Amino acid sequence: MSTLIYVANTSLDGYTEDKDGKFDWTEPSDEYFEFVTNIVRSTPAHLYGRRMYETMKVWETDPDLAAQSPLMRDFAEIWQAADKIVYSRTLEAVSTRKTQLERNFNPEAVRQLKAAAKHDILIGGPELVAHAFRSGLIDECHLFLVPIIVGGGKPALPDNLRLELELLEERRFGNGTVFLRYLVR
Prior knowledge:
This protein is an alpha/beta fold and 185 residues long. Helix content is 31%, strand content 30%. The protein contains 7 helices and 10 strands.
């Protein structure tokens, strides 16, 4: 069975974006970006909420992004090669290859996907992740704590949910960002 891994950049006070919907404070250093790329490389299937998909799709729809550096080209190629499922009731259509649109989040379908997959699966987007946490589907949580307090916005983790976590790995980057990898018990 594969592992469903939640990966998120979060402010020290626990937000993935600030109260204005901005996340420009998550701009990664090369060291950090290479580390994230290797996580994405190991997860050739991705589950996204609509807003996360719309943020990430530029890795396929904007060729200038990949042309900026070898690191960015590597990430773009890995992202484009991944199978993606987007959960949205409002998105009319997807604009990237290897992408499937689902109108509703079905926990049983995700369980079946996990059972059948040969590799780990990445999940992103706090609203989708909240459904997955509440359904007992998240196996690991990979948080990148960015050294900033934004004072409000979109929470990285769901409210009204208690889970025991076990720290598996930690790493500090030169820019002050800290990576924490947790197993959900």
